[in-house]
Design goal:
Blueprint (H helix, E strand, L loop, with lengths): L2 H36 L14 E11 L2 E11 L8 H7 L3 H12 L3 H11 L6 H19 L9 E13 L2 E13 L5 E9 L4 H13 L7 E4 L3 H10 L4 E4 L1 H9 L7 H13 L3 H18 L1 H11 L4
Parallel strand pairs: 3-6, 6-7
Antiparallel strand pairs: 1-2, 3-4, 4-5
């Protein structure tokens, strides 16, 4: 799996979590608006009640995180209920998703939820409803993070990706440790995403233990960059499993020592080594690549160019 595929898998999974959060917020706000319209809560009998609920209808909503499907919009029996939620949402589109993403990464905040609901509805959303939204978001996140891993994943990719988020009033890069499994049929699945202060061995060890506690099994090969923290965690928590350096990271490391004028040619030669299926052919191409690079003096030119640019 190429690095681009890994990053795309993570992006799609994070977007799915954000869509679930946005859906939860909108549905709860709509229900509160219906209660305000009827002057009565769900199944609440009051002398001032103005009508009856009549189930709901479903609609789709396009968001920056993708399409939300089957969003439940309540109806009243008299057909008089009107909401401004969707018009208000259009005016602040992106802000809701950003707030949900921050809560997904750093924990659900009732203050953040209250800010969203105030912007989405002219109806004053009470503390009880805000707490209900918080519980729903927390339950959805917990269900995903603690779900059982019932299939076998022969291949496990471990890596970190960084997101820029607002943290404590300032923008900062937040490390997300990610585990992507490839099952026996070749399908990719994001197994875990955890926030960490950095790529430390203890953080990856915790990630691996969490996967094992949820039932991770069948792993034969772990793929990652040549990071000592990752390798230490793998060998400590997954004994007997083979480890392999990620091809994309390897190529990037090699190209870092190559003059700009030769990068395209060297990159193509490296790709040719990794594309072939037969080990014997791959080893022959690798030997040829090393001999060619040595003969052409790429390493010497690279060192010379770095000295000329002021690099060490």
């Amino acid at each position: 799996m190429a690095q681009e595929e890994f990053e795309q898998a993570v992006k799609l999974d994070v977007e799915a979590r954000v869509r679930e959060g946005v859906k939860a917020v909108l549905e709860e706000v709509l229900q509160e608006e219906m209660s305000e319209h009827l002057n009565a809560g769900y199944r609440e009998l009051t002398p001032t009640r103005k009508g009856e609920r009549n189930g709901h209808y479903q609609r789709n909503l396009v968001t920056p995180a993708g399409k939300i499907e089957r969003l439940e919009v309540p109806r009243d029996r008299e057909g008089e209920f009107v909401t401004e939620v969707f018009e208000r949402y259009k005016r602040i589109i992106g802000s809701v998703e950003e707030a949900v993403l921050e809560m997904y990464l750093s924990g659900v905040s009732t203050r953040k939820i209250a800010g969203i609901t105030d912007a989405l509805s002219k109806v004053k959303i009470g503390k009880d409803v805000v707490s209900c939204i918080a519980r729903r978001l927390e339950e959805e996140q917990k269900a995903w993070r603690e779900r059982s891993l019932e299939k076998e994943y022969p291949y496990l990719y471990l890596d970190a990706t960084y997101l820029k988020v607002n943290w404590g009033g300032s923008a900062t890069n937040l490390a997300l440790l990610v585990a992507v499994g490839v099952d026996e049929e070749g399908f990719r699945e994001v197994l875990a995403v955890e926030v960490a202060g950095g790529e430390k061995s203890a953080a990856y060890a915790s990630l691996d233990r969490g996967l094992l506690d949820r039932g991770l099994s069948g792993v034969r090969l772990v793929i990652s960059d040549d990071h000592e923290g990752i390798k230490a965690a793998v060998f400590g928590e997954l004994p007997g499993v083979d480890w392999q350096r990620c091809v994309v990271h390897f190529v990037r490391n090699v190209l870092a020592h190559v003059p700009a004028s030769a990068m395209a040619e060297v990159a193509e030669d490296l790709k040719a080594v990794f594309k072939v299926r037969r080990e014997k052919t791959a080893r022959a191409l690798a030997e040829e690549f090393v001999e060619s690079s040595t003969a052409s003096g790429l390493g010497r030119r690279s060192r010379s160019s770095r000295r000329g640019s002021g690099a060490p």
